[in-house]
């Protein structure tokens, strides 16, 4: 029960992990008129979960989890994420969120987070959020299934929350989107990730939309 409660705590949008400034590319997609209502938002969230989270973030998360706080392995995964992430705004946002995540957990007394924060300061690690979550969450008693659930839920809720702040949908519509993708999260988490799985992402439109939005003179989110 404690591990489940820890998972709920980490997946809570009020935890200061830096995701408040992260739109997951939604702002760029909305600016191009590709996300305008609940059906289009639902399609976007499902697409992000299938073709970004499941094949990229989840792989990095689990590889870091399985590294068991071997800092050299964590650093290697972190640099792999950096090299495989398209667009400076996405890389910067991921590192910023990871830094906030580590700072919060370090302040709460988590020794793993403190060690990783020092690793980032020494520039041995870069601090990408999925990697940092995968390394720190096991210290809270979260198993591989729970870390995936927390990560996937945070992705879905983060996209939906960004859409609300952008005025694309209302709060109730956003909650409807989250409710409808929960079975998809269950299905994706049930799939095995082999130890030699490689990072893969297939969202060129969203990458381009994010890159375009990063050049905008006025924007609400960092990416």
Characterize the structure shown.
68% of the residues lie in helices and 0% in strands. Helix 1 runs parallel beside helix 8 (144-165) and helix 5 runs parallel beside helix 7 (129-136). The protein is built from 10 helices and no strands. The N and C termini lie far apart (36 Å). It has one domain: Orthogonal Bundle (Urease accessory protein UreF).
Whole-number radius of gyration? 16 Å
Mean pLDDT across residues: 92
Largest sheet: none
CATH architecture label? Orthogonal Bundle
Low-confidence parts? none
> What is the CA–CA distance across the termini?
36 Å
Helix segment tally = 10
CATH evolutionary superfamily: Urease accessory protein UreF
Q: For the record, what CATH class applies?
A: Mainly Alpha
Secondary structural class: mainly alpha
Order of helices and strands: HHHHHHHHHH
Strand content: under 5%
Q: What form results from the Cα inertia axes?
A: globular
Number of strands: 0
Can you tell me the number of structural domains? 1
**Share in helix:** 55-70%
Q: CATH topology, which one? A: Urease accessory protein UreF
